[in-house]
Amino acid sequence: MRPGPGQVLHFSEDPAIERFVPQPGAFVWALDHDRAPDYWFPRQCPRAMAWTVATTSDADRDRIIGAGCGTRVHAVEYAWLETIRTVQLYAYRLPAAPFRPLPDPHAVVTTGAVDPLGPPELVGNLFDLHEQAGIQLRVLPNLWPFWHSVTTSTLGFSAIRLRNAKPPTTPAPAP
User: Fold this and answer.
1) 99 vs 103: CA distance, rounded Å
2) The whole model's pTM is what?
3) What is the model's pLDDT at position 174?
4) Which phi and psi (to 5°) does residue 44 adopt?
5) Cα–Cα distance between 126 and 85 in angstroms, integer?
């Protein structure tokens, strides 16, 4: 589930949004083609993601993603598997024109109201989406060791809702 030309996507578990209106001082958030996979999860699901970039070392790629395992990995905790399997996630296609990137290219935003281009689309099987996109979906007992490895590597990375992850099992390594 990716946006088409001139579109961005907003993912939601609410299938009844008729218009996206930001609260005062806030944004309407959406995603471009490259960042859409970051949201192929239930909203509250903690996840850590890593991918290769031009400066990624072979050693970091092999250590974290795995030799011959593609260029991107998403990690979640076992406790979230059933929710990932059963969530009803919808994608809203929005016109890209009113959106601008944030300084950290995590998403695109607008401060104005936006009408969807059509009805929301049921995203479907989130495991299948990852497989079709060639993105590893790694399931771990705890996200923190993976996250600490990723953030000290040469990979690109992002995390969402880590506050919902299990507490770290060990202290973070010293930088």
Assistant:
1) 13
2) 0.87
3) 54
4) -85, 0
5) 7
